[in-house]
Specification:
single chain, 440 residues, mainly alpha, ABC transporter involved in vitamin B12 uptake, BtuC, two-stranded antiparallel sheet, globular
Length: 440
């Protein structure tokens, strides 16, 4: 028999060894950890991005996709019905009318992330406008000081809601509903028997929604600043993730994203600037964007923002992690009250007076609808500050388009209600899909 067919004799290293056991070389080799394919998806080029996109959709991670599709559909439908829908004056009207309610919606976004609701934001807006009007018009206070006191009054009312909710344990729904009734009465008392206080011509509040930067450089400058800020945030995130050894966006993707944002921003600046009759960049839009940028930084880049999401995801888990749940809740409701009072000044500016109706009517519903339509979850722990902008643009675009088609208010309310219901349905289905996929 040849040596090739002989059975090897057991040696000292093989005697008594289980034939199925790994060899010494195999035992000394370090185990290779499995790599999550999602971390490598960007290395596959366009195919990788498509794979990542389809995975997110199947897993219920829709993000802002539904509202963006909705905006495109709205623009196509109304532009086909009226060629002036995307005109400079129409776009400016949408921007101005979105600003005040949109600022209020930013505060509601934080409250919804907590998994709570604030029903008092409309009446707080009315109190803010009434406080400013009383101090500035009736008592001759400096415009800026009166505005500051009005904002602080909103802060105090919101903090009071948060105190009863966080410290006493009264449900937020009940606390803010009581606030809605009480502050509506306070607003009426501050306005007085005349029913309204006219905003002074040329004053700061009057300028909030009536001042436009006619210089073309203003709109293009803001557009350039927005693009640079967006690209800078992506580059900073890439640097931080690279330093931590985490997968980061490649330079090509950052350039593509920044280019898309640049096209959108400069297109809007062009519409506001160039056509005949264009008034330029609205001050209201600048202030709204400033609030959004600051709020987004707080939500995504600060410890407080992460604590808000943690409390919204699970208050008990956040408490065990050492987060002061009560403090977070009080601060969030104080923030909602502050932005509510700020929005009230915009409403008074639009109407030309602080009246008993500021913050009334469908103001509360529109503000909450904007946050939800934009993609903030009603179930807490999930949402983005920019959803206030997207949701409010959807609502105001629908209202602007229907007004241009001379549709009745009843039709506008029904369509807005249908859009809100669709947003909530999408949110509910998305959460259920994520649970089924083990990602919620």
């Amino acid at each position: 028999m040849s040596d090739l067919t002989k059975t090897p004799k057991p040696t000292e290293t093989t005697k008594g060894q289980d034939p199925a056991a790994p060899s010494g070389a195999e035992r000394s080799a370090a185990p290779v950890p499995a790599v999550d394919p999602r971390l490598l998806v960007r290395e596959e080029g366009l195919k990788g991005y498509w794979t990542e996109f389809t995975r997110k959709v199947r897993g219920g991670e829709l993000g802002s996709l539904p509202v963006l599709i909705g905006l495109v559909v709205i623009a196509i439908v109304f532009q086909s019905q009226n060629a002036n829908f995307l005109s400079a004056s129409s776009v400016a009207n949408i921007a101005v009318y979105s600003s005040g309610l949109g600022i209020m919606a930013v505060g509601i976004v934080f409250v919804l992330i907590l998994g709570e609701i604030d029903l008092s934001v409309g009446s707080v807006a009315g109190v803010g406008a009434a406080v400013w009007a009383n101090l500035n018009v009736h008592n001759g206070w400096n415009d800026w000081v009166a505005i500051l006191v009005a904002l602080l009054s909103g802060t105090a009312l919101g903090a009071l809601h948060g105190f009863f909710f966080a410290r006493i344990g009264v449900p937020a729904f009940v606390v803010t509903l009581a606030g809605f009734l009480a502050w509506s009465g306070l607003q009426e008392w501050l306005i007085g028997s005349e029913g309204s206080i006219n905003t002074p011509s040329g004053g700061v509040v009057e300028s909030l929604t009536n001042h436009f930067f006619a210089e073309k450089a203003a709109a293009y400058g803001v557009a350039l600043l927005a693009v640079l800020a967006y690209a800078g945030s992506l580059l900073l995130d890439r640097k931080r993730r690279g330093a931590a050894g985490l997968p980061a966006r490649p330079a090509g993707e950052i350039a593509l994203r920044s280019g898309a944002v640049a096209v959108l921003c400069f297109a809007i600046a062009y519409v506001l600037n160039e056509p005949a009759g264009a008034r330029g960049l609205p001050l209201a839009l600048v202030l709204f964007l400033a609030v959004l940028v600051i709020a987004d930084f707080v939500a995504r880049r600060t410890a407080f923002g992460r604590q808000v999401f943690a409390v919204g995801g699970s208050a008990e888990a956040a408490r065990r992690a050492g987060i002061s749940v009560q403090r977070v809740r009080i601060v969030v409701f104080a923030l909602s009250g502050t932005l509510g009072a700020f929005g009230g000044l915009f409403i008074a500016s639009l109407s030309g007076s602080a009246t008993k109706n500021v913050g009334g009517g469908n103001t509360l519903m529109l503000v909450i609808a904007a946050a939800v339509i934009g993609g903030t979850s009603l179930f807490g722990g999930r949402g983005k500050v920019w959803s206030a902008l997207l949701g409010m643009i959807v609502i105001q675009s629908i209202q602007q388009g229907l007004n241009m088609l001379n549709m009745a208010n009843a039709i506008q309310f029904m369509i807005t209600g249908a859009v809100l219901l669709a947003a909530v349905v999408i949110d509910s289905v998305s959460r259920r899909t994520q649970k089924d996929a083990g990602r919620a």
